[in-house]
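[Automated response] Your request has been received and processed.

Submitted sequence:
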Amino acid sequence: MSQQPKVKAQQTGIQSKLGTHFQTIFLPTLQLITRPQTNDLLKSYQDFTTETLLKTLPLNHPKKKIIVCDRHSFMMMELIGGQYLQDDNYNITDMICYEDYNVENFTRTFFRKTLAYFVIVDSTIEAATHALNFMNKSLEKFNEIANDSYVMTPENFFFFRMPKFTPFDGKLLDPFKTSFRLGKIDIPVAVIQDDVFSLQDDNAFVRLFGERDVGILNEIYSSLDTFQKRFGYFPKIFSRGQYSHQLAEMMNIKRSNNEFNKEVDFVYIVDRTFDLLTPELIANNYESLIDEVYGINDDCTTVNVNLSIYDKVFGSSKDSDVAYKVLSEKKNAFITLHGNWYNEISKANFNDIRTVLNEKIKATKELQELTQQEKSISKKLEMTTHFNMCLAFATIHPQIHQSIISYVNTYDNLELQEKQFQFFDYVFSSAKQIAGLFKQDLAGPIEDLLLLGKHEEALKQLAILCAGYDGIKPDLYDEIKKFFIQYCGIEELNIWSKMEMSGVLKKTGEKSRSFTALNSALRLYEKENSSSFYGGYTPLVVKSLENIICPQETEESSNQKGVLGAALKGVSKLTSKNLNDILTEEEHMKITNIKETIEGDPKKIVVFVVGGITFGEIASLRSLSQKLGRPIIIGSTHIIRKNNSMINQFIQSAEKEMRIFN
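Generated structure:
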């Protein structure tokens, strides 16, 4: 009996065995969780989004099912319900990103008459028509290979749009109604970590700031509004930047009732362009370095590895271990960063990781002893599987840690770190030193990078200079721009126009808004600050939030009781009296008082960065949270990572436009 499907597969050219591409893991009896473990407000929101997803999908369909997604939707589905969708009761065979396949490979691997298909993509006309046409071509290829006349019907083919809140003319999908049942999944936000949520829109920065696609504001508004409708409205909104001001106004005008969130004091919304320096810097927190060495995946919860890394964990018992069996069946081996103890160490400075790991290794040994002593068979089985995953953590993360140490000590990294320290010495020093810097030959090193084919690195160096010094002198800027066009071709103009539009590349103007001036107002750089993840530098978003909570105060006012007095405890006073003189008018902070008074003790703070936030900034906000003694919930359009840097977004956007025009 088992031979027949194989013969059929050879005759038709259709493969019979399907693998699993889920990056999350579902084991009912195993304490193995790749989904972030949250609490309080985000836990409730996470449960709400998962429940919404499971109710929306026709999971009671009698056939086995495959979920087919584009890249963004695949990330969202993993984070919102990937673990639960693998429950045998739902009969879902696999979830894949169709963009990783051409039509023939997809057809041979995944197309079956015996399956039902859930096609889930972004809510844009381009994404919808591309996915639906891809499925139609796969049907044609299937009939060609199998010599069949199979027809798609809405009974077995379902199409869902993930909310992007861009203009969408549903009538354009009318031709597909005879083949697909059309629907929408109303889940705009994914919970990434126990204190982080994201729209997971990896090209949000270039869309909004480089292409002026203001539709993303509707996406952000709808996401935050969904959150507020369930948990109450934010009583106060602080905003910085053109789009953050617009967003604050939308949130105020469109508020439908007066039920306020009793767990949150205020939300701080800030444009990414308020700080274009930090995303280009090297951060030394554990999570940033994992991303630098391994490249954290789009779901922000896993990194790809060679499966042999697990051999050192499970050893000779791996063949009989249920956890290893599930891991080995995955199409891509990966390290699950969340669950177990990762949430604790992800918040630590890299220098402290060894101590934390030693504690976890000790705890694993204690768990092993308890497991061996357990008499109940069912309890022992549960403890054994839990122990195996603790052992995996306690074995794998020291290997990650060692890989990072090796990377940190390489010549290239040491050179980058030294250059960053030199940059800090220049940018946070006197105007005389800055003038000296610009007398140096900046064009020469940039040309050298272009000669070596390091296009992205050259753009990054320019972005750092423009951010730190508020631009480059016009004659030098024009000279460097000519180099780029000569070495990279006329298409380089498209990249530069987007970067200029966003302010990432710019010429110096009459008013200097340099980080030297900002440092004089906010003390961003304190060389001896050992708690900094950037070698003494604190990101501007973090320092400006601290300045909201703890502005410059007189001795009398800083001793006041209540909300502010409690917030000031343990936080250094900041010199902010000249800040508005330094910032542009759009960057002046606006306060939207939806509710005039906030009763009770200090509560949570929500920070939302429009255009992406880095792992280093997340770690710095967590550090501030500990110093304040107040929880900070962190949100953004996406997490900026090694694989989706701002520079990379510009390059990919320009390449995409070139493909369309060609």
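Summary generated for your ticket: The domain at 203-282+534-644 is CATH 3.40.50.1910 (Rossmann fold). The CA atoms of residues 372 and 380 lie 8 Å apart.
If you did not submit this request, please reply to this message.
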